[in-house]
Amino acid sequence: MTDPPLFLLAALVLVAIPGPNHLYITARSIGEGRRAGVASALGVESGMLVHIAAAAAGLSALVAASATAFGFLRYAGAAYLVFLAYKTLRARGGEDAPLLEPRPLRRVYLDGVLVNVLNPKVVLFFLAFLPQFVDQRAGAVPLQIAVMGLVTALIGLTADLGYAFAAGSVGGWLRARPGFVRRQRYATGLVYLGLGAAAVLAGPGGRRA
């Protein structure tokens, strides 16, 4: 790895910028509580491990170079987010409901994994960001990419958990407000639809989700 301090600084800056993953975790935390937000954060970064393995094995480059493979990933990710939006918008919740149909944490975790695995912008992020810090003279390029990816994922997990805890606290306060459940359901559904649209429009040059 070339210039580790610069890599850490760049990773911190990129992760600190609010992105789609943060929006997803925030929406889940506000709507279903802090535990759901934490499960979502763990799921998102577990999905990141799949991308790290793919990048280290050279599969990410193959996916990005194939219009068919990249298109499948893009539309599959968008379709899953639209499905989550549909489930959220049709959920039943009265004005006094404490949460919007809280799902089992295992299901919430798997949702986070799939949302990130099917996110084409993460593929582009690893292709654009990590190779800049690879030291060809040091050899073992896949190992360098894997190590840098894991460091980025750990930094990302810290940020994701911060969003989950903060949004969970805000959600607890908001749930005491009349009419919150209904408005939040629509807001969360729109967030998922917006993320789905962003997945469809993903192309070269995207930042980390």
From TrEMBL:
Annotated membrane-spanning segments are 6-27, 72-89, 109-130, 150-174, 186-206
The record's Pfam families line, in alphabetical order, gives: LysE
Keywords, in A-Z order = Cell membrane, Membrane, Transmembrane, Transmembrane helix
Q: Does the keyword Membrane apply?
A: yes
Q: Where in the cell is it found?
A: Cell membrane
What is any one of the record's Gene Ontology cellular component terms? plasma membrane
**Membrane-protein topology:** Multi-pass membrane protein
Q: What Gene Ontology molecular function terms does this protein carry?
A: amino acid transmembrane transporter activity
Superkingdom of origin organism: Bacteria
Q: Give the signal peptide range.
A: none
Q: Which InterPro entries match?
A: LeuE-type (IPR001123)
Q: What is this protein called?
A: Lysine exporter protein LysE/YggA
Q: Which organism is it from?
A: Actinomadura verrucosospora
Q: Supply the source organism's classification.
A: Bacteria, Bacillati, Actinomycetota, Actinomycetes, Streptosporangiales
